[in-house]
Design brief:
Structural class: alpha+beta
Helix content: 10-25%
Strand order of the largest sheet: 3-4-1-10-6
Order of helices and strands: EEHEEHEHEEEEE
Distance between the termini: 42 Å
Shape: elongated
């Protein structure tokens, strides 16, 4: 149904060890619609069978999806040039495959996520997979 692909200019070919954790509303939606979250070496995928995609496409204009993204790889945090102040979120603007960064103001979480991803996904009637991309830049040496 969809894939979220995270690339990093400095960590090409190295595992970023990302974990996408759906928020409560996304978890409920996934359970209700029979969606399966699968982690990949460079992001995550959301799967369902073709009949469910067609049914979801007919029932929903947009599927609101929100994930907190965590990593155990400290290098991801230390070698990344963050485009805005952390914590940050990546928000998908409708019709755009490249997800844009925004700052997440006032997050007081004790264990902060690396980032947050919010996608208003419009399922394709033919069941085609949508690919959303996040490009992280390497920190420049001082």
């Amino acid at each position: 149904m969809l894939a979220i692909v995270v690339s990093h200019a400095h960590l090409v070919g190295r595992a970023m060890d990302l974990r996408f954790i759906p928020n409560l509303e996304t978890t409920a939606l996934m359970l209700r619609e029979g969606l399966l979250l699968r982690h990949t070496p460079d992001g995550a995928e959301l799967w369902c069978d073709a009949a469910q995609v067609s049914a979801a496409a007919q029932r929903f204009v947009v599927l609101p999806l929100v994930f907190q993204v965590f990593t155990r790889n400290a290098r991801v945090q230390s070698c990344t040039h963050w485009p805005v102040a952390r914590p940050l979120r990546y928000v998908c603007v409708e019709g755009k495959a490249q997800i844009q960064a925004e700052t997440l103001a006032g997050s007081g979480a004790s264990r902060r996520p690396l980032l947050s991803v919010e996608i208003d996904h419009r399922p394709a009637r033919d069941g085609a997979c949508a690919i959303y991309r996040i490009a992280l830049a390497a920190k420049r040496p001082d």
